[in-house]
Amino acid sequence: MVSLLALLAPILSLWLWYPLFKKHRRAFVWCVAITTLLGIAPALLIVAMRHEFMNFALVSHLQVISGGLFAAIGMGVVLAIVRDVLWLVLRATAGPTRAACILRPRWTVLGMALAVGLNAYGLTQGVKLPQVNEHEVTLPRLPAQLDGLRIAVLADIHATPVNNAAYVQALVERTNAARPDMVVLPGDLIDGDAPTQAGNIAPLAGLHAPFGVWSAPGNHEYYSGYDAWARVFNRLNLNYLANEARVLDVRGQKLAISGVGDPAYGRLSEQNSDPNTPEGVPPDVQTVAQQARAGGAQVHILLGHQPKMARSYAPHGIDLQIAGHTHGGHIKGMDRWIVAPANDGFVSGLYDVGPMRLFVSNGAGLWPGFAVRLGVPSSIDILVLRSATK
Predict the structure, then answer these.
(1) What pLDDT, on the 0 to 100 scale, is given for residue 272?
(2) Which pairs from 172-176 meet CB under 8 Å and 24+ separation?
(3) Distance CA 378, CA 383 (A)
(4) What is the Cα 144 distance to its own chain's centre?
(5) 301, HSE (Cβ side, Cα atoms, 13 Å)
């Protein structure tokens, strides 16, 4: 999406600022040039990061700023649509003279100022530490003995020099204070290469829960050097599950916790040991389902990063898929109109997908390339499992 919008940036800029053309041509040229540059900046920074043209710490901080301005441009385009629709309506109903007031340059300038201000506020919300939020999740097959089991979800941390070790340490403290029975991390824990950035997630080793801490890959693990990060996660005792299920004895019942690979498999990364060979594994839900059944699991919880895969996972005897990836959609309106359609309708919260329940977390961190949140706060989620038979 970032690359597509970067290609469209010149056209969108011309459209956005055309009311300035007749009376303020110099300002028009400057506004179009600056908006175009800001529109392509996020894509340029991704290229710089992947090819190590710039220090990763610097790129991360620049991404936060450019991502906020990028979001402001997107909001400006929405305002341009509203502006031009109003112009057409007024022209048809009240005539060209009345309609001309809509195209006064000051309204476009004020609209963009509002967009920049809103997204600056959105950045402050994006970098805030998340609150702990509890959600009750009823599972039809959950044994009564497991009623009340508490599962903490830390999704999409995207640890970088922006949300660094201090940020992650605060997540760990808030999560441990909620006293979960189990902690799960369903992907996108990191960004950047493992040799230089592993310290950002080192505090995750401090997570504690009676029935373990479990993690699974997301698409950013594949972008950032899958094999190297897998070694880091296992060193931190995060029990990294990639097409693997473990059957646990929980309160005398058999509970399977599993994780699958991500659909991003096959994408080549400069961070791989061999940049021409994909690392990691593709998602294989059949394997984890067989492992869970072989272990006699009475209930099966799957960590599957991308919620758009839910309909293909549901027929395999899975009771609950825990996902992330969407960041809740970032901005009200954008969540339902853009992010949900791109993820098969799933964006945030609980869904029934055939016999399976799906929980999509808003995420506990931020991707620096788009850190804006408006009306969609980050979250440390506690899922309180409920039995339908209790």
Answers:
(1) 66
(2) 172/203, 172/204, 172/206, 172/207, 174/129, 174/130, 174/132, 174/380, 175/132, 175/207, 175/380, 176/206, 176/207, 176/208
(3) 15
(4) 33
(5) 29
Mean pLDDT of the region 125-141? 97
Q: Using CA atoms of 61, 184, 308, 297 in order, give the dihedral in degrees to the nearest 10.
A: 170
Closest CA to 308 of 365, 358, 265, 383: 358
- The model's pTM: 0.93
Q: Which two tokens stand for residue 233?
A: 């996660």
Reply yes or no on whether the pLDDT at 100 is more than 70.
Answer: yes
Q: Which two tokens stand for residue 70?
A: 């990028």
pLDDT at 286: 97
Q: Determine the angle formed by the axes of helices 56-94 and 105-126, rounding to 10 degrees.
A: 140
Residue 180: which region, alpha, beta or left (left: phi > 0; alpha: psi -120 to 50)? Answer: beta
* Rounded Cα gap, residues 355 and 320, in angstroms: 9
**Edge-to-edge, what's the strand order for the sheet holding 150-153?**
131-139, 379-387, 150-153, 182-186, 213-216
| Joined tokens for residue 186 | 């369903």
Confidence (pLDDT) at 83: 94
CA 209 to chain centre: 25
